[in-house]
Amino acid sequence: MEYLKAVLNSDKNKEITNLKKLIQTGKKLNKNIKKYEIELNKYNKEKATTPIKIIKRKTKTNTIKKVSKNKITSSSKYTIESVESRNNMVIIDFKTKISKSYVKFMEKKVNNAYQDIYDIKGNFKDAYPTKLKINGVKQIVIKQEDKNTLRILFEDNYNLKTIYFLVNDKRLILKVLDIKNSNSKSTSTKNTKVTYRPGLNKVVVLDAGHGGKDPGGIGPRKRYEKIVVFKVTKYLESYLKKRGYKVYLTRNKDKFIKVRNRTVLANKKKADIFISIHANAIGKAKAHKLKGIETFFLSPARSERAKRVAAKENGSDVREMSSSTKRAFLESLNRPRITASHKLSIDIQRNMLFNARKLYKDTVDGGVREGPFWVLVGAQMPSVLIELGYITHPEESRRLYTKKYQKALAEGIANGIDSYFLKNP
């Protein structure tokens, strides 16, 4: 009202004062204040009656510019604040919030060299003079591919293993997981392989779903869920151990274990995370339609799909609870643990999908979802349930039964675990 009165009375000074108050209050309340900012900018331009002078003083090494404090320097048009290499990572800090859509990845082989290429949405003032280096990587090239794309290229004589993930909405990290010192001048280390070990002092318990008398979902040509998930779990165990994790399995063979007992081992070993691995299933009517990778974390279900999947995975467990009692119990769960589980599920889903799409570009992203999975209830640590795909889908079940795809999924999960612990040490 005060602003409107100032406008009606043509009192510019009061208009400016009240515009500033509206903008300040609007920001606190998360309101749209764009129109007020536009109006205030008009007055700021009117007040700037004298031109801003730029004084250049040349030195032997560079040119120094002195500008008015109100001057928006040319660097403000750049969306990337800084790029640096540290240990086995390249860290990119942005000025604004970003999402995974900002990153596009591709692999190339040029002559005898392997390249991992990241095209990043944004522009960086010092792209050309900035030099990046990671010991054990032949070269890292950074350049502004076009005005809206920063390209960072890793190149070596062997196929590098790189991943990416977001931190705090404004930071992107590109990480080299496996480094060979193939470029070292020292003959004693020429053939030495240096492996990054982010899992030191971390305990992981892996649960291969179903087993024994419980086959889980059954797909075409008698493809059993219990077989697929056990093989992926074993590959995942191997990858994690190589990275320094201490890994335990709830079952080491085709054995039936009650759902309620699967987290007992995780609590006993004081695991840092618990991961239950499954494959989804649906009735024949929709078997040809439904496919895709999903990752769930424990929470009261909010969708019919989540309830359906949970009902399938909870099938072998018998709990003497009414539906209202179950919901009340889930609502009482430790919220920080649920939050941590949500973060873990995001990292696993993103990296697992990324790896799967290297083999099959049409892999469907089922997303990260909430669900009332009783296998996760007893875990006293962050825990997730992974659905590797639909065992009932003709094509997806065929892929799930191939060694190459099983390894790709396992490696993606391992990369997701690495990503989670790097951000949540």
From TrEMBL:
It is an enzyme of class 3 (hydrolase). GO terms for molecular function: N-acetylmuramoyl-L-alanine amidase activity. Pfam families: Amidase_3. This is N-acetylmuramoyl-L-alanine amidase. It catalyses: Hydrolyzes the link between N-acetylmuramoyl residues and L-amino acid residues in certain cell-wall glycopeptides. GO terms for cellular component: outer membrane-bounded periplasmic space. Keywords: Coiled coil, Hydrolase. GO terms for biological process: peptidoglycan catabolic process.
